[in-house]
């Protein structure tokens, strides 16, 4: 992911500061209503609101860190999903739900630049997750 794309994604996440609880309330129930089977890739206790917010903080920290750290994390998610029999369609649903929940929560603060950056980030993430799934299959 190039610097500008990452900067746009990070800027959108910066706008979430102080709204993490509302994001967790929007994202996790929507994700699990769309695909209850995705619950297995999250730590035990993901129904606990505090755990959901901790997960979101870890996501933001990974995104703000180095590409190597983020890619390794995404590969691990892909590996875990494949290990539990979940496929690329589940990964795409996860990504789309995350971006959609972010867009809804940010409302008028959402910009066309964010949509473009997140689309690129999603493609990169899905590629990394697919590689993790391939490693599990090997």
Structural class: mainly alpha
Rg for CA atoms: 14 Å
Low-pLDDT runs: none
According to DSSP, the number of beta strands is 0
Average pLDDT over all residues: 88
Shape annotation: globular
Helical segment tally?
6
Helical content class:
over 70%
Strand fraction equals: under 5%
Largest sheet: none
Distance between the termini: 26 Å
* N to C succession of SSEs: HHHHHH
Please characterize this protein's 3D structure.
The protein is mainly alpha-helical and 138 residues long. The chain contains 6 helices and no strands. The radius of gyration is 14 Å and the shape is globular.
Which secondary structure elements does this structure contain, and how are they paired or packed?
Layout: H1 3-14, H2 20-34, H3 49-64, H4 67-83, H5 88-106, H6 112-137
Helix pairs in contact: 1-6, 2-3, 2-5, 4-6, 5-6
In short:
The chain has 138 residues and is an all-alpha fold. The protein contains six helices and no strands.
Keywords:
single chain, mainly alpha, 0% strand
């Amino acid at each position: 992911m190039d610097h500008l794309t990452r900067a746009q994604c990070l800027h959108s996440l910066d706008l979430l500061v102080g709204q993490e609880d509302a994001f967790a309330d929007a994202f996790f129930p929507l994700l699990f209503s769309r695909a209850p089977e995705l619950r297995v890739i999250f730590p035990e206790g993901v129904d606990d609101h505090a755990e959901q917010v901790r997960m979101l903080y870890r996501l933001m920290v990974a995104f703000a860190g180095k590409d190597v750290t983020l890619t390794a994390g995404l590969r691990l998610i892909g590996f875990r999903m494949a290990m539990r029999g979940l496929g690329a369609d589940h990964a795409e649903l996860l990504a789309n739900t995350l971006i959609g929940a972010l867009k809804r929560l940010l409302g008028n603060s959402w910009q066309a630049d964010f949509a473009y950056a997140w689309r690129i980030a999603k493609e990169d993430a899905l590629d990394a997750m697919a590689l993790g799934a391939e490693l599990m299959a090997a």
